[in-house]
Design a protein that fits this description.
Two copies of one chain form a homodimer.
Chain A (H helix, E strand, L loop, with lengths): L1 H11 L10 E10 L8 H24 L2 H15 L18 E7 L5 E7 L5 H11 L4 E3 H10 L13 H16 L3 H4 L3 E2 L2 E6 L5 E7 L9 E2 L9 E3 L5 E6 L1 H6 L2 H12 L3 H10 L9 E6 L5 E5 L3 E8 L4 E4 L4
Parallel strand pairs in A: 3-4
Antiparallel strand pairs in A: 1-5, 1-6, 1-13, 2-3, 2-7, 6-7, 9-10, 10-11, 11-12, 13-14
Helix pairs in contact in A: 2-3, 3-4, 9-10
Chain lengths: 328, 328
């Protein structure tokens, strides 16, 4: 029975996303310094459950819709969970404010939407999609983006919606640490809690999206790679769909997401090789630069990280879920 | 004599920027719908003089410094001129405000700086460079970016500094036109007045930068490709330096600047071919998508546009200036 499946899979491998039970959605919930031995059962379960919920929501949306629906549903679920640093779980900057960033891209049309510096729209990923689909623009920031999305009927919230006890405690710790010793923050193992997704639907159309709540105690106005098309997010049917998490500055400078896609497109690199190489070529920093997920039309998946862990998971066409935090 | 020069140039063509009087700086002052027959002597002279001034300022800075100095000096000169839609010449958005955007990139280190949504820093290109060199970040927006740059000692101005009579008249015209007929704006020939530069210094290091004052009567918060590394600006010694102007949304979606660089780097495309191809592959829109300038370490220059004109110019190592607006 198994050998028949393998033969079928080989036969069908040229058909985008139609072969035997291929991965249709891959997600990440950030990369970080959390060591395997420090992972309590409680934290482990909390993240695994949150990843599985997002995978199921995305899977359902892809089945009844498109890869874009899947990316939005998976990321929205993670934004609402307060488990990750995105949406409800966003962290405070040095002004004691949240500045949320997100982007989404359609691999079929290469249309894209992105938003940065917002704290009144409940789901930044939906803001990015609304800008992509309803406006004549790609990228909107701050109050102008908020007003536009409100006029388009998106769910608005008070900035207080994003205030969580855990983000508040993190801010106080970071502030105390900064006062104790300049630069001490940099020595803590980094945690990049950004979330992201890459999906392929039954038409073989790819999509990718990313959403972040920033960095605790960061300078106001700083924008990372999450809302930058080509850096944190990229999707093109002829290449792949990519979402990144990590030290955003490095991902912008090396245009990580599109670099992976271009190696696949122009040089015929295998998806895994392109992803591993681009990550390895990033400047080295203590704790590691971050993590990347990628998916192509043939169901090939790449997941790479230079941190201790990457919260990640996949779901197949038939609904088989796999989640992981460290090397398995 | 001529054949000796040609032979020498061929002999030296492998040495970055050191061969016979190669181009060391290429600039643009936007692309647009202005037809050759509508170009009065006065407008022609105004633009050519402004381009020549910027080329001379950039040339001087490269001679005594680096390609980054050249890019900053050339763009600063254009920002201060009020001739182009950048810096002093920025246009008003639909709120009657200016939102200036800029970015710069160092081809040697692939470090970059970018800024968006500011109207209190006199020279956005210097803000981008300050963020690149002084902060741990790449991209900063809005008031947070302004506060950071003020603290770094950059020259600050009142938002009123950017109010010019011509931008004000353009806003009134656009508003009247929008009231008369929805969509009428789109039928006017587009003018993308963004400025940009690409330079190579005697060490063979490339740099690129872009600066814009937005689009008249555009929705507040909209950001185009100018501050996006990989879209409006990209520089990498192993490939080329690129600056774009045009319908920014298309340039973000197709990551124009880095796409050109990746075709050169991964596929060995000639710079001119890569530039022409990427421009041609942009979605077609009435009036044309925009223009691109690019320069590599060997002094190869590419300038392409799908609009009626591209305000552009080059200067060689010895100081020979060439400027053009239409096909020559």
């Amino acid at each position: 029975m198994r050998s028949i499946h393998v033969a079928l899979a080989l036969l069908l491998s040229a058909s985008p996303c139609l072969a035997q039970d291929k991965v249709v959605l891959v997600i990440h919930g950030g990369a970080g310094g959390l060591a395997k031995k420090s992972l309590t059962h409680e934290i482990d379960k909390r993240y695994r459950d949150a990843l599985a919920l997002a995978l199921m929501a995305g899977h359902k949306a892809i089945k009844s819709g498109t890869s874009l629906d899947g990316v939005e549903a998976a990321i929205k679920t993670m934004e609402d969970s307060a488990v990750f640093n995105a949406g409800k779980g966003a962290v405070f900057n040095r002004d004691g404010r949240q500045e949320l960033n997100s982007s989404i891209m359609d691999g079929k049309t290469r249309k894209a939407g992105a938003v940065a510096g917002i704290n009144r729209i409940k789901n930044p990923i939906s803001a990015a999609r609304t800008i992509m689909e309803k406006s004549e623009h790609v990228f909107m920031i701050g109050e102008g983006a908020e007003r536009y999305c409100r006029d388009q009927g998106l769910e608005m919230v008070s900035p207080l919606y994003f205030w969580t006890d855990s983000a508040w405690k993190e801010l106080l710790q970071a502030e105390a640490s900064a006062k104790r010793k300049a630069g001490a923050l940099l020595k803590d193992p980094p945690h990049y809690g950004t979330v992201g997704a890459a999906a392929c639907d039954s038409d073989g159309n790819l999509a990718a999206g990313t959403s972040t709540g920033g960095i605790t105690y960061v300078g106001p106005g700083r924008v990372g790679d999450s809302p930058i098309i080509g850096a944190g997010t990229y999707a093109e049917n002829a290449a792949c769909a990519v979402s990144c998490t990590g030290k955003g500055e490095l991902f912008i400078r090396q245009t990580v997401a599109v670099d992976i896609a271009m190696r696949v497109k122009y040089r015929g690199d295998a998806l895994k090789k392109a992803t591993d190489d681009v990550l390895r070529e990033l400047p080295k920093i203590p704790g590691g630069a971050g993590g990347i997920i990628a998916l192509d039309r043939n169901g090939n998946v790449a997941m790479a990280y230079s941190t201790n862990c990457l919260f990640r998971g996949t779901i197949t066409q038939s609904g088989k879920i796999w989640v992981a935090i460290h090397e398995e």
